[in-house]
């Protein structure tokens, strides 16, 4: 299901003119990512990039790495497209589609160096927990795509979701925690405005960084 929010005129224009350039159409065939980006370089997936400020900042600071953002929300896709264009970010591409399906069909096994999932929707009500993105089926699909040595980095400001992520990742024998439990915020992840405001109010943010150390089978 594509979730449609309000789309500004500028986002709509960016969506129409720039998606054909920086977007990759969903299809059920695996992508050759080196061909997509025109080079062989580390590949990082970002799932649910929202308005894309973090994606654009990380990509600008790391031109040596290629970033593939997956997001369903049209205003967010328009917003990141505008930033890619304004900052001439040659190392970002977007797929506007459900991440579970993209992982299953478009991402080749052991082709990804890192996965970012920043502030996934917390779905705080207990009866909605099943809608949360980071659950065993998602982690299983991610594991298939990660190279040995690749990392999975999630961040959340919802403590109980942080505990769930920690538990789900700890239960996968292919994954090893890079910290005792929560990791210090890696330098490449910039603090968002929303996060700084929350921290001033005494709210916490938890980073969880696991590494893929082996593959099953
Ligand atoms: C709370 S927002 C966080 C956005 C951003 N990462 C940030 O830190 O501000 C979560 C985002 O995940 C996206 N999302 C949720 N489920 C998704 C899915 N299955 N596939 C792709 N994107 C998804 C939503 O559209 C939303 O933009």
What this model shows, in words?
It is a single chain. The protein is α/β, with parallel strands linked by helices and 217 residues long. It has a domain at 1-108: Rossmann fold. The chain is 36% helix and 19% strand. It contains eight helices and seven strands, in the order H-H-E-H-E-H-E-H-E-H-E-H-E-H-E. It has helices at residues 9-22, 33-37, 53-61, 74-86, 99-105, 136-145, 159-170, 193-200, and strands at residues 43-47, 66-70, 92-95, 112-118, 146-156, 175-177, 206-212. Strand 1, helix 3 (53-61) and strand 2 form a beta-alpha-beta unit. The longest helix has 14 residues, at 9-22. The protein is globular and about 45 Å long. The two termini are 33 Å apart. The mean pLDDT is 94. S-adenosylmethionine binds next to helix 5.
